[in-house]
Amino acid sequence: MAKVKVHVFLKPGVLDVQGKAVEQALHGLGWSGVANARVGKLIEFDLDGAADPAAEAKKMCEQLLANTVIESYRIEAA
After folding, report:
1. What Å distances lie between residue 19 and 11, 31, 35, 42, 48, CA to CA?
2. What pLDDT is recorded for position 31?
3. 47 burial class (0-12, 13-18, 19+ CB within 10 angstroms)?
4. Does the predicted TM-score (pTM) go above 0.85?
5. Residue 36 to residue 46: CA distance in whole angstroms
């Protein structure tokens, strides 16, 4: 059984409204050095029966887990 983590983020150049809100909130709380905040998602799951868990996770990302038009992803499989 493989432990898989998929990190999904908006591609550079795509407006990240949630990241901007977090950045402004941190500034309001006194962390003025924060810049270019981006918010993404982490999807973790166990995958059983796959000869190549990373390749299976890539298929999942391309079909469901990421909107590849505006998002990029990174896969960790152990």
Report:
1. 13, 15, 10, 15, 34
2. 98
3. middle
4. yes
5. 32
Residue with token string 């799951």 = 45
Q: Give a three-class secondary structure readout of the chain.
A: CEEEEEEEEECCCCCCHHHHHHHHHHHHCCCCCCCCCCCCEEEEEEECCCCCHHHHHHHHHHHHHCCCCCEEEEEEEC
- Rg of the chain over all Cα atoms, to the nearest angstrom: 16
Sheet with 71-77, edge to edge strand ranges: 41-47, 2-10, 71-77
In this prediction, residues 63-68 reach a mean pLDDT of: 98
Amino acid 36 reads N
